[in-house]
Design a protein that fits this description.
By secondary structure, the chain is α+β, with helices and mostly antiparallel strands. The chain has 3 domains: 100 residues, Rossmann fold, CATH 3.40.50.20; 70 residues, Dna Ligase, domain 1, CATH 3.30.1490.20; 234 residues, ATP-grasp fold, B domain (D-amino Acid Aminotransferase, Chain A, domain 1, 2-Layer Sandwich). 33% of the residues lie in helices and 26% in strands. An 8-stranded antiparallel beta sheet has the order 13-12-9-10-11-14-21-19, with helices on both faces. Strands 3-2-1-4-5 form a 5-stranded parallel beta sheet, with helices on both faces. The chain has a 3-stranded antiparallel beta sheet with strand order 7-6-8, with helices on one face. The longest helix is centred in the middle third of the chain and has 16 residues.
Length: 445
């Protein structure tokens, strides 16, 4: 087992990793930007090293500075969390070259699943259902028009190196395709320094359902059931839950088997997530694999009583997984609490938190790095915490969530708490009648 882990991240996930490391008797090193010097992950780690200025490229994406921090603190492993360098094969390789264990999959695995075209080809070979589409990158608008006719509109153009909805355009007819192609290419280049695009059939009225998997260095793979992430805005998730209200036992078995096939196809080691689109007829299609811990891992932990960060660390240290597929026994819901104004098109709201009261009670979990007096910097993702509730049934979990949200007080900045309160009372949401398009018609009152 490792003696000291450097956490190459910030905020709530850095604090989450520190907590598990402390329980395992592992020393921790926090790295931080000048904007994060007062963050809780800096206060609670055993050591802390400033690695640069407030912008991500100056600090949390600065590989030389992170490696220097590893060297001066004698860290023998790095946990990348999510975002930043979590799925950066180059960073994983540099860690390996310097004898530092990257807590995650190998660089080869990251590369295989990080590029959408390569990942899709791998899944086809493994027998995992994929969305109908082209076999390679689009070379021109003319090729895009020809392929769209073959696939049949609507289609979706995606960045091969994409994520978070960047470099993605839905096209409903040929008159829209030239602008969509151009816009997606420019956005992909700006976001990922890779303007490669591909095309797929656009699945209408889909659910976004993902399967949590874990694999070890000995070829064992298991799944830990599903999460429904369909409540999202501009492809950014806002609410996640497990199990999915759309799921059946038969569908869970088929999707779980497909997820295991997908992970086994690349001999996957570490925890990861296989993401699927599921249409209204319960046909499911591989979308992508996230080769890292997910923001929403907490809902899985609550329904199967399984510490995913601990499992990730144990796998990296060479331990075997149980190989057991887990079934959810409870129901958990997570609301992402963002520093955004839901009454003003979810505009970011950085600033100082003047008053903070977090909810508690049975079945309530809060993962956050903020406190009264904390200043939310404008340089990073707007998420300031995650509120998770767990209960025997979905209805009880929703009722607990509504009660917990009602107790959650954050003053000084705008937050998404009012949005979540209204969502928990929405009749269609409570009945489980929603798709990824749900928020396009949801209106704040």
């Amino acid at each position: 087992m490792f003696t000291k882990i450097l956490i190459a991240n910030r905020g709530e996930i850095a604090l989450r990793i520190i907590r598990t490391c402390r329980e395992m008797g592992i020393k921790t090193v926090a790295v931080y930007s000048t904007a994060d010097k007062d963050s809780l992950h800096v206060k609670f780690a055993d050591e802390a090293v400033c690695i640069g200025g407030p912008k991500g490229v100056e600090s949390y994406l600065n590989i030389p500075h992170i490696m220097a921090a590893c060297e001066i603190t004698n860290a023998d492993a790095v946990h990348p969390g999510y975002g930043f360098l979590a799925e950066n094969a180059k960073f994983a390789q540099i860690c390996a070259d310097h004898g530092i264990k990257f807590i995650g999959p190998t660089p080869e695995m990251i590369n295989k699943m990080g590029d959408k075209i390569t990942a899709k080809e791998t899944m086809i070979k493994a027998g995992v259902p994929v969305v109908p589409g082209g076999e390679g990158l689009l070379e021109s608008v003319e090729e895009a028009k020809k392929l769209a006719k073959e696939i049949v509109y609507p289609v979706i153009i995606k960045a091969t190196a994409g994520g978070g909805g960047k470099g993605m355009r839905v096209v409903w007819n040929e008159s829209e395709i030239e602008k969509a192609f151009s816009d997606a290419k420019m956005e992909a280049a700006a976001s990922f320094k890779n303007d490669g695009l591909y095309m797929e059939k656009f699945v209408e009225e889909p659910r976004h359902i993902e399967i949590q998997v874990a694999g070890d260095q000995y070829g064992n793979v298991c799944h830990l059931s599903e999460r429904d992430c369909s409540i999202q805005r501009r492809h950014q998730k806002l609410v996640e839950e497990s199990p999915s209200p759309f799921m059946t036992a038969e569908l869970r078995q088929r999707m779980g088997e497909a997820a295991i096939k997908a992970a086994a196809a690349i001999n996957y080691e570490s925890v990861g997530t296989i993401e699927f689109l599921v249409d209204k007829h319960r046909n499911f299609y591989f979308m992508e694999m996230n080769t890292r811990i997910q923001v929403e891992h907490c809902v899985t932990e609550e329904v199967v009583s399984y510490d995913l960060i601990k499992e990730q660390i144990k796998i990296a240290a060479g331990e075997k997984i149980s190989g057991k597929n887990y079934e959810p026994k409870l129901h958990a819901i997570e609301c992402r609490i963002n520093a955004e104004d839901p009454y003003n098109d979810f505009r970011p709201s950085p600033g100082k938190i003047t008053v903070l009261h977090t909810p508690g009670g049975h079945g309530v979990r809060v993962d956050s790095h903020v406190y009264a007096g904390y200043v939310i910097p404008p340089y990073y993702d707007s998420m300031i915490g995650k509120l998770i509730t767990v209960a025997q049934t979905r209805e009880e979990a929703i009722n607990t969530m509504y009660r917990a949200l009602s107790e959650y007080v954050i003053e000084g900045v705008k937050t998404t708490i009012p949005f979540h309160l209204q969502l928990m009372q929405n009749e269609d949401f409570r009945k489980g009648n929603f798709t990824t398009k749900f928020l396009e018609t949801f209106k704040m009152k």
